[in-house]
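Researcher: Going back to the complex we discussed earlier. I've cleaned up the inputs and rechecked each line, so this should be the final set. Can you rerun the prediction on the complete assembly and write out the structure?
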Amino acid sequence: MSRLEIMTRGKSQQVMEELYNDFGRRLVASPPGICPVDMALSFITLCHSQSCGKCVPCRVGLGTLKDLLESVLDGRATLATIDLIRSTAVAIADSADCAIGYDAARMIVSCVDGFRDDFEEHIEKGLCLGTCELPVPCVFQCPAHVDIPGYIALVKEGRCADAVRLIRKDNPFPVTCGYICEHPCEMHCRRQMIDDAINIRGLKRYAVDNAGVVPVPQNAEPTGKRIAILGGGPCGLSAAYYLALMGHDVTVYERRKKLGGMLRYGIPSYRFPREMLDRDIDAILSTGVKVQYETDIGTDIKLEEIIAGYDSVFISIGAHIDVKANLPGEDLNGVISAVELLRNIGDGAEYDLTGKTVAVIGGGNVAMDVCRTSMRLGAKKVYCVYRRRRVDMTALPIEIEGAVAEGVELITLKAPSRIEGDAEGNACRLWMKPQLPGALDDAGRPRPVNANMPEESIDADLVIMAVGQKIESTIYENAGIPTNRGAIVAMNSGQIFKNDKIFAGGDCATGPATVIRAIAVGKVAAANIDEYLGYHHVIDVDVEIPNARISILSPRGRVNTVDREAGERKGDFECVECGMTTEGATLESSRCLRCDHYGFGVFRGGRIDKW
Amino acid sequence: MVTLTINGKTVTAPEGSTILQAANASGIAIPYLCYLKDVNEIGACRVCVVEIEGVDRLAAACNTPAENGMVVHTNSPRARKARRTNVQLMLSQHDCNCPTCARNGNCSLQSLAMELNVLDVPFKNNIPENRWDNTAPLIRSESKCIKCMRCIQICDKIQSLNIWDVSGTGSRASVNVSRNRAIREADCSYCGQCITHCPVGALQARNDIGKVFDALDDPDIITVVQVAPAVRTAWAESFGISREAATPKRMAAALRRIGFNYVFDTNFSADLTIMEEGSEFVERFTHREDYSWPMYTSCCPGWVRFLKSQYPELTDNLSTAKSPQQMFGAVTKSYFAEKLGVDPHKIFCVSVMPCTAKKSECEIPTMNDACGDPDVDVVITTREFGRMLRVLNIIPQLLPEEDFDSPLGSGTGAAVIFGATGGVMDAALRSAYYLVTGTNPDPDAFYKVRGMDGWKEAEFEVPGAGTVRVAVASGLGNARRLIEAVKRGEAQYDFVEIMACPGGCAGGGGQPIVDGAELADVRGNVLWRLDSESAVRYSHENTDVQTLYKEYLGAPLGEKSHHLLHTDHHGWQMPNK
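Model: Rerun complete. Updated structure for the full complex:
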């Protein structure tokens, strides 16, 4: 008899582990709109079956919670039941011996606190507040509600120009989004239940790369209404595009030499080639949108003058001021903000960092952009210094990987404390305090706390601060437009005051956000400005969507795009990512489950033809 | 065209056809439950699943496009098993107490289970509870609903009222009044189209037969029955008697056998309606500036409810004339009571209607102008009429033809067409023409307003009055489109007839149900035939109506008419208005 044995997984354990995996992906792909109380019941049922059964609160209590939740769903409960559920869950959370019990109960407390109104509707009316109004997960997740299954079906048939026309119904920046959208659409993709999310952005990029020049639709009859758009970034230009299509006379006021906002002045061209951005902008301008370049509101023209001179005004000035980290030494030569560096490059400034050691402070996408830009400008060494862990970085994982592959050194869990200068007042060294991950903050990321370790330092001739952007809203504030910590306060409609001509949106109202969110806000603003002006113009498109056909349902791999080889690409500003081949795009598009047709989508909400 | 193989047979079908359409067109039947052509093709019941070679899952035939080269097996073992399991699953949540269901013998789930030889259900029964206000004219039984979603789709797509919606998700997903309202709180028109398109007994009109029997059984009560034009097109459908044999006179005999003291005809009050509404139109037309335009008919209570909830600002555009049903009640409990020399409170006025909204109309609190009681006491649908005949073992085939009673039992050809879309307009124009010119037009002069188009337009010259622009719409979705076009200034009319149900009352929500068939057209044609065969085809030539004016009312739009035959549409409110 052996004293110890090497543990091997039994067949059932193996199958269970596969199923756990499947279930994890399934949970991620939960459809929007389902009844949260029903889901809570399912959670607690699952949690209960995880219990070993040793301790009372978990063995009995979780089952009791299950019964109580069931009584709510079956209309057998009273309002007092809600409190009973909560107090029972608190007792279990307080007294269970292990996480199987106490964390399950904590989830139920969150449920009661998070959606008490759903509980109440079930109890009082026997009805549910859950609805599947927008049942296609990708369309639901896309802030602009682009018809994703529609354009994937078009790509599958090789109808790339039609795909672009379809996308433009909801988003006038198809090229931009094909290259750099953060693709929230992929997050809850139902295909994950089978294998992996569809590469939606990759397919869009394939469409725009292969569509050629696609003309925009005809504008509606001129209305004679004049609209001023302040700021020619993705938000302002989206609004401008739709308003022009609706027949309004649109003028964009742009402070810089060129349009595009952060797409041009924030995103490096190796991620998004400038000529590709110009394709979207050219299409938008082809609707007859007028532009006043290099016009600064407040200096070149008074805000009041614009407000008085137009029937409606849309403020979409973005968030372009850098945030200071307030580090000692931040005013030394050789300390620069990421915003400033990228903006200057956007306007054509040439930097040479040959031989320099660069320290970039921050962990977001902008930090990665400046890291990788610095590599391309010839830096000898590029550090990315971040006070939290790599997994806590807000930059997309693919950006971090790209930077690392190009030779950027990540220094994590080190909080920059001061910048040391040489005798001439040039930065030469960055000092950092070692950190440990602490308790979670509201966003679920651990707060860094000082570790009991001495300060460390690295060489740094150039320190680039990439710790956020702010909004330059003073002149708007002075004109009586409400702001909150610098952000312009607008309603969900984009309007600032009820029944008033001024609208605002985009980064200047939300703080720095994604491009697709900015586009969506521009679309919403256009609709509501049109409505405010007394019109009900409809934006639609006459592209016929191919019928859904039975897809490939057996699990298979997702077709990812590939990047150019790191050693080669880090020496130039050419596009890093290679688009899909036709073969790859056809294969990937045939993975789409067509939730617009199969499931609830065929019944309701599967397609929004117009807005 | 696409060419495919179904069950070994080569089949061609137009591009864009579904497998179901391709199969049906070539004589291959595929069973289904939720499918409703052009309205509900959502593959919810999964009964129509078929096996396609090379595809790893079964596909719903109702919404899978037929493709070139497809090889389809509708009865493969996999398809048969899945279909059968799905029917068994539905049965496990369906109240199968069939003998007590109004759709017993006319239920698609019942016949499907029979066809598929489902003689047992291996699953535990889990029948949801009914929670409904059973006093409403429209009754929904959760315990019978199979969640096919047809009601939602009919109401959304055809009637544009969105009364129904999916409620809840997951295992508790069901159908309920939209936005979590109770039916009495909703702006339901009570048109009943959801009922006639329900494949099972989940949706019903309120059963009012008991009230009728109670009255019939009470020796102190005088029962008077009126029967609407469209009822005669369908009353004996479920008895397997041909439309030709199911004559109005045989129907009158049937009503008499039930035991009503007086068997009258809504045709009488349809002629009366034309006298009032036609005169009202002439009055409005000749004093254009005093009224807002167009004038809308008011005889369809589903439409009146629709207008009052969706376009309350147009209430004054409705003709103030009551519907024929309500005119009949008012005349019965005044003129007829006087003629009989009885206390009108002793008269119990029953209507047999092709309609469910009529049940709500007779309950409108202001419809009590004759004696203070409701002018019409109870409304039964054509379906309930048929059930009463069965209760009493009255077999239509064996009945002789008998006349309606006098004087409220006479009607012209112009009256009988009230039951078909365009009929009210046609009849009104015949008499309006006469009122203006003093001569009768050709009774078929206004044929352009007939036919099954959902929205018809025509212009007619009336010598001395000018061009009259008319429109006729049936189906509330069409009504909405028409109103929106008028509001946008894209259409201008003087007189518009609207019926809530597609095809008019012949396709009414109270008519017998034949799942999968739209019978408004064939039934309506019965009415047009009856009109063409009538000796009298002008409402103003109904001698009993003439006598009524002479003896009692005076003239159309006169003082007495105003009191009894017209109504203030502002006198009652839709929910939440």
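Model: Worth noting: The mean pLDDT of chain B is 95.
Researcher: Good, that matches what I expected from the previous run.
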